[in-house]
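Hello everyone,

My group is preparing for a crystallization screen and wants a predicted model to guide construct design. The compound we'll soak is flavin mononucleotide. Before spending weeks at the bench, it would help to have a computed complex in hand. I've included the protein sequence and the ligand's SMILES below. Output in structure-token form would be ideal because that's what our pipeline reads.
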Amino acid sequence: MQQTLEPLITSAWRDAWDKGDLNALDGLVADGYTRISKATGATVDITGLKAEIAAVREAFPDLRTTIDNIVEGDGTVAVFWTSTGTHIHEYLGVPATGLTVQTRGSNILVLKDGKITKETVTWDGSELLAALGIRPLRGTATPEVGDSGESPELHADLMKAFNRQFITGVTVVTTKEGETPKGLAANSYCSVSIEPPLVLICVQKTSSTYPALFSSSHLGINILGTGQRETVRVFASKAPDKFAELEWHEGPNGSPLLDGSAASLEAEIQERFQAKTHTVFICRVRHAEIDDSAPMVYKAGRFYDGGNLAEL
Ligand SMILES: Cc1cc2nc3c(=O)[nH]c(=O)nc-3n(C[C@H](O)[C@H](O)[C@H](O)COP(=O)(O)O)c2cc1C
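Reply:
Good plan to model first. Here are the tokens for the complex, ready for your pipeline.
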């Protein structure tokens, strides 16, 4: 290894990771460069590396990296590094926490003619989040749930037509952001098992309720009754205070439960699976309240009286 490579690596590394000059690495890597993650097994080329750097820098814009040590071998270089940054945008599916984090890693560079041909990275983004007490979303490793592989994509209209044939109830999923109650209308509720009492709900990541749900330990699920047509409208909207006109109370762990619902439960969030645009929350029910009133029925964009169904 040439003595001259160490300052080159240090400055290119800082320029790329800390200053966002993604082309700073170009002069260091050979044609056919590959970067392998020990944590996920993912392999990327220089373009993929630049995309990874851009994603990290977007999430942690004040990123600062210290090269702790560079150990030179015969045709290889080991780089030990420490980075700190403030988590202000989504990373690995985790909405911004505002927390400043520190993480360490080591990279083994294989050199040919003074350039890097292969880089093996020992660093695990999910460990970083775990150190913060944040469980990352399942499904962040490749392939993600919902990756289509080689199969042709089903047309969206066909998928919608299929869903229109499926009858559901309507729920309002709730949580609290600090002391503020939050919630959205959702018909993706599904009972997973009775023993143990597991349920699931799918929430779109663009929902304004999503960041609060993501960081909550518990959530509420309210099955709406026939008298709550206006409640659906409000909770399917982006109204700033959806609870303003409502009577509600807290479950044992603080989740908002809507008065007048056909049934309400509070559940502990146990898993969060990443599925492209949505996150699937798997929850263990800890508390349930059942009312005699008839549930609302939803089919193909319309709402029906669940107390007035004709039995087959
Ligand atoms: C009947 C019905 C069912 C819905 N089901 C879901 C659902 O399962 N998951 C979801 O993320 N959004 C669902 N939505 C859409 C959300 O309620 C809607 O996007 C809402 O504006 C989100 O509010 P927020 O951004 O304030 O959280 C549904 C809407 C309706 C009317």
